[in-house]
């Protein structure tokens, strides 16, 4: 083939590509596109994959086939994406300030933010615009310790190198509540400030003895440590667990089942719930569409196959354990669906 003919073909290809890009860009411009962020947590936890999973259920790419024709069953024109963050407290504050359109957060902290208690008590009215789209699934307290260093109970954490996560995370607040019930203060251990990603790395290198990780099991990063035979999980049970549950009603008793992590039996522990929150300023029709997409029957397969915790995201529990108002748009959807079911 001559150089001239190659040049002609190359030029034609470039022109066709440019035309396609222009057409695609103009088609996007011609439609209403809404970008919607879901604040999660670190990539090693459960929030990020769950946020990504939820995003896939509500995303309705411009130009996609209608849901009834086998296309996306998300909100038309909505592009949702999970965003890594420092955790629940930071997520709630970002939603309230408008820096995030939505986020995942622990139920206890959602409640505290709305009523101005706990870590939110300095601004008692700041959280009044917080709203819930849905209660999602339980998440369990993983109290992870290095193996064979003499830690067999929470009391043994004294004088050890311990991370309770970073300021702004729900894990940190709950870890404080748990340690307080056991009579352990920050003066009793060597505090290491690290998020879950860093804590996992430090423990693997032998530079950390224990850390709290609150997430729905199984956590991939924790499973990797268990597979390598590096860790144990401490039980939180008995009278102290009962005391914590009675004192903080958002906690419930839970068990990480036998075999969840290699070499580890069933671990009694505590759990809170994960809730999906937005600001009250979110348009009612958008909140309605998001709830409709999340609970669309055709999206059930995405939730069931995307993550083990996705199976626990059920319509029947969408409003259970919600201690603050549900967004009016989502409430409208729930009422309409309930009426159809009657």
How is this structure best described in words?
There is one protein chain. The protein is of the alpha/beta class and 342 residues long. It has 2 domains: 33-138 and 273-341, D-Maltodextrin-Binding Protein, domain 2 (3-Layer(aba) Sandwich), CATH 3.40.190.10; 139-272, Periplasmic binding protein-like II (D-Maltodextrin-Binding Protein, domain 2, 3-Layer(aba) Sandwich). It has 11 helices and 12 strands. Strands 1, 4, 5, 6, 7, 8, 9, 10, 11 and 12 form a 10-stranded mixed beta sheet that branches. It starts with a helix and ends with a helix. The model is unreliable at 1-30 (pLDDT under 50).
Short description:
With 342 residues, the chain is of the alpha/beta class. The chain folds into 2 domains: 33-138 and 273-341, D-Maltodextrin-Binding Protein, domain 2 (3-Layer(aba) Sandwich); 139-272, 3-Layer(aba) Sandwich (D-Maltodextrin-Binding Protein, domain 2), CATH 3.40.190.10.
Write the layout of secondary structure elements.
Elements: H1 3-30, E1 34-39, H2 47-58, E2 59-60, E3 75-76, E4 78-83, H3 88-97, E5 102-106, H4 107-115, E6 130-146, E7 161-163, H5 170-181, E8 190-191, H6 196-204, E9 210-215, H7 220-227, E10 231-233, H8 238-247, E11 252-256, E12 267-279, H9 284-294, H10 300-306, H11 328-341
Parallel strand pairs: 1-4, 1-5, 2-3, 7-8, 7-9
Antiparallel strand pairs: 5-12, 6-9, 6-10, 6-12, 11-12
Helix pairs in contact: 9-11
